[in-house]
Amino acid sequence: MSVRFHLLISDRQYACLAREANRTGLPMAELARRAIDRVYRPDVRPRAAGVELSVGLWRRPDAAIAGRRPGIRLVD
Question: Residue 14's Cα: distance from chain center in Å?
């Protein structure tokens, strides 16, 4: 069961919350609930296990650098 709760926040806090709601697509109420859970009940909400993967792209290395690395062949 949910309880209606009235909260006064500053204009600055509202603007921050509104920006985050626009960025994530979540309602401001859900963002506030998540913030309360994260700060005051950090172990209650389940978290999904996952892996973070970062990938980068670089220009093709020049021959002097590639030639020093074993297993890399430059083909034109």
Answer: 21
String of DSSP letters for 9-72? --HHHHHHHHHHHHHH---HHHHHHHHHHHHH-TTTS-------------PPPPHHHHHTSTT-
DSSP state of 3: -
Q: What mean pLDDT, rounded, does the chain reach? A: 81
Long-range contact pairs involving 4-7 (C-beta distance under 8 Å, separation at least 24): 7/32
Q: What is the pLDDT of residue 37?
A: 85
Q: Where are the domains of the chain?
A: 8-46
